[in-house]
Design goal:
This protein has about 375 residues and is α/β, with parallel strands linked by helices. It has three domains: about 100 residues, Elongation Factor Tu (Ef-tu), domain 3 (Beta Barrel), CATH 2.40.30.10; about 150 residues, Nucleotide-binding domain of ferredoxin-NADP reductase (FNR) module (Rossmann fold), CATH 3.40.50; about 100 residues, Beta-grasp domain (Ubiquitin-like (UB roll), Roll), CATH 3.10.20.30. It is built from nine helices and 18 strands. It is globular. The chain binds FE2/S2 (inorganic) cluster.
Length: about 375
Amino acid sequence: MPLLAQRPRARFHPLTVSQVRPLTDAAIEVTLAVPDELAEDYNYVSGQYVALRTELEGKEVRRSYSICAAPTSGEIKIAIKRDLGGLFSNWANDNLKPGDVLDVMSPTGAFVSQHAVTSLNDPQAIGEESVGLSRYMAFAAGSGITPILSITRAVLASNPQAYMNLVYSNRAAMDVMFVEDIADLKDRYPSRLAVHHLLSREQRLSPTHTGRLDAEKLRSMLGTVFRPEVVDEWFLCGPFELVQLLRDELSAAGVSADKVRYELFTTGKPTAAPEGNIGRPVVADAAGGNIEITFNLDGLEGQVLSPKSARESILNAALRVRQDVPFACAGGVCGTCRAKVISGEVAMDENYALEPDEVAAGYVLTCQSHPKGDAVHVDFDS
Ligand code: FES
């Protein structure tokens, strides 16, 4: 798969906020200025995300947010929706303003159009060339629209023979993010973009567009709103349970898994590690019951001992000796902590980020991986 070799390791740089635009009462779009000297680092493919890092209440806080705009030189736009009790999202909605500086990780992530990438064999070329007749289907819930909007813009702009069918689910009209942007896109591509707004708490004229996006709703849309057999690629972005349900239903409808791309919200995921556990102090076992973890990062080799009794992740152990080991969600969702196993064996608890071919090639999520033997060597630079 072309993306596999082309996921460079992400790095943090300070970027200045150039604009903050309200999207709804509970969401903002934040534009970050990318200086010329960092243009290369912040090249991205529609559908990728960035991690933000700042200090709040005396603690380092990291969150990842999808990029909502199609690739534009000199800036990156993300959307931040308030989470119930969310420390970073509420702080950002209340306080972020032009001129503020945030640590922003260079873009990463594999939630991109493989169909367009494979056809072009160059991910950076999306938005520049045509790939022939292509039919896309996207399901977004809430802020899951963010990467899907970026992908929609890119595939429609890049290919005059691309068609996108978008189902966007929200509780109420006031929760719909990017409502004007979606309407503008629809005006620009009236015959190539179909948008179905589903509202779970408001009655709409069409019963198809009223109610929750669930198995019954999906089945009622299959074959009426869209025909699965002609879809080249599917995009799903929303909470864990919804994405799992849609994947199961599409599989039952005969859709091949290799046509389905999905991304989970980084909040609400079932396996997120408590932030306080990341890099927590663990003391090597003086009696010798340790695992030797070796890792390559930025061309340098690091080593750390991890007591067998702690059953800690490779990421956690590595962070004790190198603060710049990459991570964002710590929950197996974002893929930022990806590394390749050079020697030794690991057990990976969860994986919502790596493609099967990446796993087959030896890549693991270090935030979810525990060494199985006495020694393991991983490479973050691969
Ligand atoms: S840090 Fe997100 S998957 Fe490991």
